């Protein structure tokens, strides 16, 4: 039994949100490598040291608090979205710190802590853990730029005075990440804890319908090759055709659209849009891809469109380790009997990358109204503490 | 009979395209108040003077060649789109010049010529003729800016050394505008001449569906309020509901779309799009508006969306004058027997504005493949000459 201290945990969690506090609700503005992010990481390193862990920054800003021997790793990330909530990854970092600290105090099992850098993707997607796990080459990462054109190499140079080598992952026996759900399931169902079964896989690609740009007054409807209309028909058709393939947990999104020339008096000659779909099952992802490609082809042929695709981003589903997951389930059953559930993670997390290095598992607490990546993001303190308790029990 | 000279007409037409020649096909880059546009207008003024007309620039760059007595007015505009074709409005200006010149040479009826300024809407829509006709207040026009932020007042100051007063429209008995069709009807049907029955009316407004921005991984499909999906469903529904209301000449277009936040991993929280429709019948335009508003309301209610509208731009249909139109029909029947048709104009033209001042009529020649506002815009020279002939006959 590790006697995690709820008050100390909550005090640290609230202190962390003073770095980059937005002044709106409990929100924070703490994107990777910002002054607030670096200050928060320096403070975290000091708290790790006070807890008897050895703080260590790697070359890309990932901060480890190492228990000094072969250990379980716990944590998440402390950077935020440009307009972020106070919990998001910060919760998992501070919960790991409290469990590691409490365990050390009572001579419990050694537990190391990590705060990965740029999970929120200022420079890509889960950048820090992707580099550490070998999913992203450092030389390639250095060339990635943020929306303002700043290269990753320049951003990470801001922490060069802190940086040591990369940490050897072989010293860790596994990784447990606690996180807010960032979705509505737990809140809607009144559950306190979600034990993650798998992190869903993602497919994401750009689709372009090329039609014929034309005058919106003089081009009769029957002679138009209107790229917006093609995109709209495509969206309706896949919504219909997916019905026999998907589960209630499957999601798909057209979130980005660019019309050309995008003028009210011109029939759109080109529509480029993002097509993203997520599911825990690789076969289902593939069946959906078939439907997407065959439907787009049909629409293009029927409407005289050129059809082209950008490269498809593919991230495979990551199944949680049975042993670690079992420990979380036992913890959940004793902390929140009848008030927890097994569930997939629809969002990517650092655990997706770390899964390439070692066994991983994840634990969710509810997001009020499912809101995250927003200043209004919040979770009841009782639920935060319940999550801490489950984590502490699983660590044993 | 006015003996319009086809060779002189074509020579002038080709000379005009040397001002702002794009070097691609016969295309021109001659937007309103550009150096090329002003040089072209100076050349046109000189050609008018040689033809015995009195050239006169008004304060907004409209160039008149006045026949010195009560006269019929003919012409169009000599400015082009940023990437324009050589004919567009230039054809109507040069054809008018040739007919006026030829008529003067044989002591025929007095004919005045006009090249309106900024028909292509660098600063709005048919700016020069809109100001002349009183449809647009000069003080208000002066505050309009182009895409680069240049105000109309600053642009027209470039021609201040040429400017006289506004021309009194009372001296003109009517206005005939020859123009390329800018659509595919004549070319598709093998006709040489189109006599315009009316210029269609336009309705154009911005529609916004406001849903809930959300994480595209963690938000289940059944809990989404996806603004893109609402827009797509709206488009499908109006396509269906319009079927019992429209004619083959009716058109409607969603040409401009803005999603917010427009990211592939975020369920769109807001979609703003242009809804434009055109028809020659005011009642039909109103029935379409009812369908648009009731369908948008239904979609918004069914999908939990906020619905809002921008201001609706409304331009009423303009019916061509029966007398002038009859003269064009007689000319067409003798120049191109069995090879002409009556047709609406789906595009706006300067004649739309001039119709507020005097009787107006319009004449179309074919656009090859219906292409215009493009360097590739073209018309067979035989068809250009046929149009000139019809204009000359109608002028008598």
Fold topology:
The structure is a homodimer of 396-residue chains.
Chain A: H1 6-16, H2 35-50, E1 54-57, E2 63-66, E3 71-77, H3 90-105, E4 111-116, H4 127-132, H5 138-143, H6 152-157, E5 172-180, H7 185-189, E6 193-199, E7 201-210, E8 214-215, H8 227-241, E9 251-253, E10 257-260, E11 266-267, E12 270-279, H9 282-303, E13 306-309, E14 313-315, E15 318-319, H10 322-335, E16 340-345, H11 350-354, E17 360-365, H12 381-395
Brief digest:
Chain A has 396 residues and is α+β, with helices and mostly antiparallel strands. Helix content of chain A is 35%, strand content 22%.
Strand content of chain A: 15-25%
- What is the makeup of the main sheet of chain A? 9 strands, mixed
Structural class of chain A: alpha+beta
First-last Cα distance of chain A: 7 Å
Note the overall shape of chain A: globular
**Share in helix of chain A:** 25-40%
| Most extensive chain-chain interface | A-B, 56 and 56 residues
Number of helices of chain A: 12
Oligomeric grouping of the chains: homodimer
Tell me the radius of gyration of chain A. Answer: 23 Å
Which residue ranges of chain A are poorly predicted, with pLDDT under 50 across at least 5 consecutive positions?
A: none
Q: How many strand elements of chain A?
A: 17
The mean pLDDT of chain A is 96
The succession of helices and strands of chain A, N to C, reads: HHEEEHEHHHEHEEEHEEEEHEEEHEHEH
């Amino acid at each position: 039994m590790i006697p995690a201290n709820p008050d100390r945990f909550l005090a640290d969690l609230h202190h962390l949100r003073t770095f980059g506090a937005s002044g709106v609700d409990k929100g924070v503005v703490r994107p990777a490598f910002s002054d607030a992010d670096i200050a928060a990481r320096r403070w975290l390193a000091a708290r790790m040291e006070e807890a008897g862990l050895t703080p260590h920054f790697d070359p890309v800003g990932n901060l480890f608090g190492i228990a000094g021997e072969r250990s379980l790793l716990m944590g998440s990330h402390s950077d935020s979205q440009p307009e972020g909530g106070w919990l998001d990854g910060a919760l998992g970092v501070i919960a790991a710190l409290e469990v590691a600290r409490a365990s050390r105090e009572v001579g419990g099992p050694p537990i190391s802590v990590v705060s990965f850098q740029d999970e929120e993707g200022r420079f890509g997607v889960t950048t820090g853990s992707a580099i550490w796990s070998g999913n992203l080459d450092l030389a390639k990462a250095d060339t990635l730029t943020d929306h303002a054109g700043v290269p990753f190499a320049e951003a990470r140079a801001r922490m060069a005075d802190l940086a040591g080598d990369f940490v050897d992952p072989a010293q860790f026996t596994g990784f447990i990440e606690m996180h807010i759900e960032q979705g509505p399931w737990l809140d809607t169902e009144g559950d306190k804890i979600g034990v993650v079964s798998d992190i869903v896989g993602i497919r994401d690609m750009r689709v372009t319908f090329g039609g014929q740009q034309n005058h919106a007054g003089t081009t009769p409807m029957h002679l138009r090759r209107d790229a917006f209309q093609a995109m709209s028909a495509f969206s309706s058709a896949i919504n219909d055709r997916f019905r026999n393939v998907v589960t209630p947990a499957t999601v798909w999104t057209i979130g980005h659209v660019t019309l050309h020339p995008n003028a009210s008096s011109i029939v759109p000659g080109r529509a480029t849009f993002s097509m993203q779909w997520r599911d825990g099952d690789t076969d289902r992802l593939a069946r959906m891809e078939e439907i997407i490609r065959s439907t787009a082809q049909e629409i293009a042929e029927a409407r005289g469109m050129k059809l082209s695709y950008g490269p498809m981003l593919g991230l495979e589903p990551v199944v949680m380790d049975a042993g670690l997951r079992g420990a979380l389930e036992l913890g959940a059953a004793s902390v929140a009997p009848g008030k927890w559930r097994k569930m997939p993670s629809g969002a990517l997390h650092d655990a997706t990358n770390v899964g390439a290095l070692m066994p991983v598992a994840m634990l969710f607490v509810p997001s009020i109204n499912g809101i995250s990546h927003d200043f209004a993001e919040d979770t009841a303190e009782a639920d935060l503490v319940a999550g801490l308790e489950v984590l502490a029990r699983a660590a044993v």
